[in-house]
Description:
The complex is a heterodimer.
Chain A: E1 4-7, E2 10-13, E3 19-25, E4 38-43, E5 50-54, E6 58-59, E7 67-72, E8 75-80, E9 89-95, E10 102-103, E11 107-111
Parallel strand pairs in A: 2-11
Antiparallel strand pairs in A: 1-3, 3-8, 4-5, 4-9, 5-6, 7-8, 9-10, 9-11
Chain B: E1 3-7, E2 11-12, E3 18-25, E4 34-41, E5 48-54, E6 59-61, E7 69-74, E8 79-84, E9 93-101, E10 107-110, E11 114-118
Parallel strand pairs in B: 2-11
Antiparallel strand pairs in B: 1-3, 3-8, 4-5, 4-9, 5-6, 7-8, 9-10, 9-11
Amino acid sequence: DIVMTQSPLSLPVxxxxxxxxxxxxxxxxxHTNGYYYLDWYLQRPGQSPQLLIYLSSNRASGxxxxxxxxxxxxxxxxxxxxxxxxxxxxxxCMQALQTPLTFGGGTKVxxx
Amino acid sequence: QVxxxxxxxxxxxxxxxxxxxxxxxxxxxxxxxxxxxxIRQPPGKGLEWIGYISYSxxxxxxxxxxxxxxxxxxTSKNQFSLNLTSVTAADTAVYYCAREERFYYYMDVWGxxxxxxxxx
Lengths: 112, 120
């Protein structure tokens, strides 16, 4: 199985400031089609996860442009350019390169 | 707009079978563009992929659960289902169903989740 490791576990943020979350995989997530099969999800308190970013850097429909994803190989990053109050929750990365699909342990973002 | 809704018993006894159904509305479960997934989240923990079923009934299970899991499709009701046998307290979790785009494998629609507790 591909092991996904996120850091930090917890991220206190100030509204208006940037934030960054790291996700590392135990093997490269590069597909033969040239895409990296890494997705980001946000689980707001009491809600189900929602898709933010797919294929490492593509924003899902309706996701604000303050969210961006980048990375290659085994190292990926989710960035929030200016954190807003509604961004609090747990962020998960997930590899979709091979089954079983596996998730990172999550990063809890909270407002300072 | 496609919506998914999980349903099933909230309490299951140890050694019995957990059975959940996901009802799809606003779209067809027979679409060849998607896989239909189950994911679970134990209390206070992360997400675990259980498996998916395709529009044609092909399945793919997490090896850690494969011996106990069966997914099935009911196209007449636009539903898909999860059966998990011989449950223990470790199977206590929130269970989500989710739609997965089958070419790039992202889960773009999730149900609200249903809590299942395994206890006598």
